[in-house]
Fold this sequence. Notes:
Layout: H1 6-18, H2 23-30, H3 33-36, H4 46-58, H5 67-84, H6 96-103
Helix pairs in contact: 1-5, 2-4, 4-5, 4-6
Amino acid sequence: xxxxxxxxxxxxxxxxxxxxxxxxxxxxxxxxxxxxxxxxxxxxxxxxxxxxxxxxxxxxxxxxxxxxxxxxxxxxxxxxxxxxxxxxxxxxxxxxxxxxxxxxxxxxxx
Length: 110
């Protein structure tokens, strides 16, 4: 059995808690207009680009993940935690707040 990178192991539990969308759910979401309508950056938003990277990480076995993957996983965990702390009042089902989180692999409606 392949050894898991120490940095991946260190972030693994937090990653599992933060990213609650499956690879298939996230791929489907990233193809929507709503997904492309939120975020910062020229052209493809930072969050949308991150979502594509998350899809790749979700499709990779834990033992094959690298220190670079672990760094992105930590970035995702931090983003999800910060964004959840800014939850707006009321129904969030069709909000840019939720859509942005979903680009980062977390659906607060799950």
